[in-house]
Amino acid sequence: MSAETTAVPGGEGLADRTVRWAKISEFLAREGFIIIFFAWAVYLTIATDTFLTEGNVLILLRQAAIFAIIGIGTTMVAILGELDISFGAILSLAGCVAAAWIVGGHHPLLAAAIAVAIGGSVGLVNGLLVNHIRIPSVVATLGTLGVVEGLAMMYTRGSSIFGDGLDRIAWLARGDVLGVPSSVVIAFGMYLVGWAVTTRTPFGAHLYATGDNREAAYRAGIPVQRLRLIVFVLAGALAGLAGLMQVARIGRAQSSMGADALFPVLTAVILGGVSISGGRGRLVNTLVASVFLASITNGLILLGVDSQVQRVVQGAVLIVAVSLDRLRR
Amino acid sequence: MSNHPQTAPDPAASAASFAAHGLWKHYGGVAAVRDVSIDFPAGSVTAIVGDNGAGKSTLIKMLCGAIQPDRGHIVVNGVEQRFTTPAAARQAGIATVYQDLALADHRNVAENLFLGRELVRSFGPVKVLRRADMRRDAIAALADLKIQVPDVRREARTLSGGQRQGVAIARAVHQGASILVMDEPMAALGLQEQGRVIGLVERLAERGLTQLIVSHNLDHVFRLSTRIVVMRLGQLVAVRDTADTDRSEVLHLISGIEPARARSGATREPGEAAQ
Question: Would an 8 Å CB–CB cutoff place B39 in contact with chain A?
Fold first, then answer.
C-alpha cells in the first residue's frame, strides 16, 4: 500500500492523512463520549429552559455522586483486568444493616463503619475466590451478588427500614458545602484522592502494570495477588459506603435498592474508556461518564420522554461506548 | 537496589560466577532434567541448545527460580542458593529476560524500566512517584548501554522488538543483575535489530556480565555465544567453546547421532566442565 501511495504524486499526503485519521480515531475512542456529552448538553440547553440551571445541575450531580463513588472501585478493578459486579448487592446489604443500626439508636459513625466493613468483607471474599480458588472475577462476583442480595432480603424480611433516626444522616444527601450538595463534595474529594493514588503512587503504577501484563508485573516483583485482594476489598468498601449514602438520599433502606446500580456503574466505567482487558483507563473519565449518564436520564425526563424509553437509550449508549473501545485496536 | 544509575556499573563488582550442581527435575514419572551440572564463568556468554523437550527451558526456569529442582542446587559467587521465587533469584543477581513477558505494553519506557522498583519520595506512609527522576534516570540508563528508543515517554507497545528487548535488558542491568538469562533474545527480530542485540550482548560481556542464552537458532547461537552447551533428553551432553566447534558438530550433538570425532582436542566432557 505504501509503495502505491509513494508512486502517485502527492501520495505522501495520503500517508499523512492516514496518520491524522489514526490520531483522530484514537482521540475519539479515548475521549469521544465527552464530545457526545457536550453535544447532548448543548442540545438540552437549547431544547429546554431548565437543563442549564443551577438547581438542575445540582440535581444531576447528586444523582451521579453515589454511583460515581462505586465507580472508583469498579474502575480500579477493571484496570486490573477484572470485573466486579457485586457492588449493587453490597450497597443493599450495607445500606440495610447500617439503616437498622441507626434506627436502633446507634451513632451514624458506627453505622458507617459497619457499612464499610460489610462491603470490605464481601470484597475480601471476592478477592480470595479469584486469587485462591481461581474463579474468574465475573463469576465470583456474580456468586457473591446472589448471596449478598439474598442476605439483604433475609435481613429485611422484604420490608423497608426507616425511622426518625435516619434524619441524623440526612445531611449526607441534603446538606451542602457552600451550596454544593455534600454527597457531591464527598464524591469529588474521593475522586481527587483516587486520581492521586492511581497516577502518582507506586500502588497506582503497580495497578496499571499488573492489569497490562500480569506476568511481567509478577516477574518484576510486584505482589500481584496482594494487590488484587486490596483492590477488591477497596471496591467492596466503597460500595458499602455508597449504601449508607443511598439510605441518606432516599430516607429508607430496602433490600432491592442496589439493583439499579449495576447498569449505570458498569456503563460509566466502560464509557470512561477502561478496557475490560485491563491496564488502561482513567478514573477521571469514569467521573465524567457518570455525570453524562445522569444527564441522559435527567435530560430525557426534562424532554418528557417516557421512562421506559430511557432504558433503551442507556443501553444504546453502552453499545456505542463499547464500539468506540473496539475502534482503538 | 541501585538508586544511582548514573554511576556506571563497576565491571569487577558485577562479575559473577554461577554454577548448577546436580540438578534434577521430574514431571510425573518423567525426568525433564537429569543430573545437570554446569558452570558459567564470569563474563561468559553461554548458549544452551537442544531439541524440543531436551530440558532447556526446565533448566533455565530452575536457574532463575521460576521452578524448584527436585535435587541439586545453584551456586552464585561461591554461595549455595535455593531460589523459591524469581524475586529471590533476582536478589542474588540473576535476572531473566523474556521478549514477550517483560514489558507492560501501555506503560511508558521509563515506567517499564522501573517496574517494581519505582523511585519514590515518602511522606510518612504515603509514597509518591518521582516521575521526572525516573524519566531522567531511564534516559541515562539506556544511553549507558547505547540502547536507542525514540522517547522514554512512549508506550512500550510502540517500540520495535529490538527496542523492547533493549529496554528489558536495560532494566535487568539497571536493577543490579550480574547474571542475565535470555530466552530466544533474537526471535522475530529483523537483521538490523539482531545486529543491535548482538552489540548489546557484547557490551554486557565486556562489563563482565554472565549471560545465558537459550535459542533454537544456531545462526544466532554462533553469533552471540562464547560457549555452547548441548542438552538432549534432559541431560547435558556436551560443552564446547564456540570458536572450537561448528554447526555440523553441534547439530550432531543435538540429534544424538555420533559425528566423526575429529576435534577431540577442543572437546571437554560434561563432567569436567562442571568442576
Answer: no
